[in-house]
Amino acid sequence: MILIADSGSTKTNWYYSNHEHHSKIISTGGINPFFSSTEDIIVELRTDLIPKINNTILEIYFYGAGIINDEKGNVVMTALLTLFPSAKVEVQSDLLAAARALFGNKKGIACILGTGTNSCLYDGKNIVEHIPPLGFILGDEGSGATLGRKLTSDYFKGILQENLSQKFQKQFPIKYAEFMESVYKREKPNKFLAQFVPFIAENINDNYCRSLVENSFIEFIDRNVKFYTNFNELEISFIGSVAYFFNKQIKTVFEKNNLKLGTILREPLSALSQYHISN
User: Fold this and answer.
1) Inside any domain, residue 273
2) CB 16 within 8 A of CB 2
3) Domain ends where: 30, 56, 86?
4) 142 and 243: one domain?
5) Which of 183, 247, 248, 267 sits in a 20 to 30 Å window from 240, CA-based?
6) What is the domain count for the chain?
């Protein structure tokens, strides 16, 4: 009887397996200790998770955004132990989730490319080196937010070529003032900017879009991956929607840089479940 959680700020997916090895995925609201208190988490899970579980849970492995230190981890840990007092509970970062899903017990460089980015050097058990991503303003090279920021910047400055500019305007008839308010005044501007990534994907055969993606991935490698010990000798693997949908561009960049590309996954939960079952 095991629960494995892959949690972001908006959604948490739980892998649930009972003593008969029947498994299912349960979705609840996002759990991020930067935005949710222990009490908030308890209320959420009592409503949306507990009624869907039929057996006593023996083990819980929770991986989430916002688990950056013990203080934040304890916010989630306390909630889970309150609800499942007899369970063994482990609370870890989404970066360790990516590393375990991508490499299991092997050594490698694990990278997240989604709305934001992250990366680490993983020794098969622990994260041993970590380059801070710094968010979409100071970093997050190759992320959905950064791709969206570059695209929209070129659009409003008139740099985007005419055919793409017309397509963009038709698909997103957004006014300049509204755009600026969404980026600088409203909540979660990174997610707002990332919404434009599907436009890039739809037009990836255009030289502008292809170059935008490939150059952003080169920046990610140059400003993150290349600072890990023996980066050019290790397998480098990716997880996240941006990596998944632009896998051809990642392969092109890796071939040009003579790097060893490993696995590319859209999400970690299936591989994480196999990791914990096998261990």
Assistant:
1) no
2) yes
3) 86
4) yes
5) 183
6) 2
Residue 19 pLDDT > 70, yes or no?
Answer: no
Phi, psi of 109 (to 5 degrees): -105, 115
For 206, left (φ over 0), alpha (ψ -120 to 50), or beta? beta
CATH of the domain at 40: 3.30.420.40
Helix axes 207-223, 144-157, angle to 10 degrees: 130
Alpha-carbon torsion (61, 65, 69, 71), positive or negative: negative
The pLDDT tens digits of the residues spanning 120-142 come to 999 999 999 999 888 778 888 99
* Digit-coded pLDDT (tens) for 206-226: 999 999 999 999 999 999 999
Q: Which residues are bridge partners to 2 per DSSP?
A: 17, 59
CA angle 182, 185, 191 (to 5 degrees): 45
Which pair of structure tokens corresponds to residue 265? 């996954």
User: Residue 19 is encoded by which pair of tokens?
Assistant: 């003593």
Nearest to 215 by CA among 166, 279, 134, 154: 154
Question: Tokens at residue 93, please?
Answer: 């970062």
The residue segments making up the domain with residue 166 are: 96-267
> Half-sphere exposure of 274 toward its Cβ, with a 13 Å CA cutoff?
9
Residue 186 lies in a domain: yes
